[in-house]
Amino acid sequence: MNKLTQQEEEVMLHIWSLGSCFVKDIVAKFPEPQPPYTTIASIVNNLKRKGYVEAKRYGNTYMYLPLIKQGEYKSTFIHGVVKNYFANSYKEMVSFFAKEQKLSTDDLKDIISLIEKGKEE
């Protein structure tokens, strides 16, 4: 699975939220000033080439459907971040964010609760 550019990720997030959509639907999801239709169409074509979306022709236009689930994408790339930046240690990653004060004590308690709940299932 190829890593997406920031623009591709942003478009892909809209596609995931819409399910099936046309380029005009994606453009409409952007705040003003909206990007040009042709820019979004080009990004969607890149996503198609990379295997993230498929296109179904409807008259003069195409409807796009995601081929990769959002959770699958997140999982693949968070593993890469942990491997490349935190010595393949989730503990190191959480420690980093705690030291940088990006995680509060309550956040850490919630994480511990989620971990414990997962062990029970």
Overall average residue pLDDT: 91
**Main β sheet profile:** 2 strands, antiparallel
Strand order of the largest sheet: 1-2
Helix content, binned percent: 55-70%
Strand content: 5-15%
Alpha-carbon distance between the two ends:
30 Å
Q: Compute the number of helices.
A: 6
Query: Based on CA inertia axes, which overall geometry fits?
Result: elongated
Walkthrough of the structure:
With 121 residues, the protein is mainly α. Helix content is 62%, strand content 10%. The protein has six helices and two strands; from the N terminus they run H-H-H-E-E-H-H-H. Strands 1-2 form a two-stranded antiparallel sheet. A hairpin with a 2-residue loop joins strand 1 (53-58) and strand 2. Helix 1 packs across helix 3 (37-49) and helix 2 (23-29) packs across helix 3 (37-49).
Annotation keywords:
6 helices; 121 residues; single chain; mainly alpha
Summarize the structure.
The chain is mainly alpha-helical. It has helices at 6-18, 23-29, 37-49, 70-85, 90-99, 105-120, and strands spanning 53-58, 61-66. Strands 1-2 form a two-stranded antiparallel ribbon.
Task: Indicate the topology.
Elements: H1 6-18, H2 23-29, H3 37-49, E1 53-58, E2 61-66, H4 70-85, H5 90-99, H6 105-120
Antiparallel strand pairs: 1-2
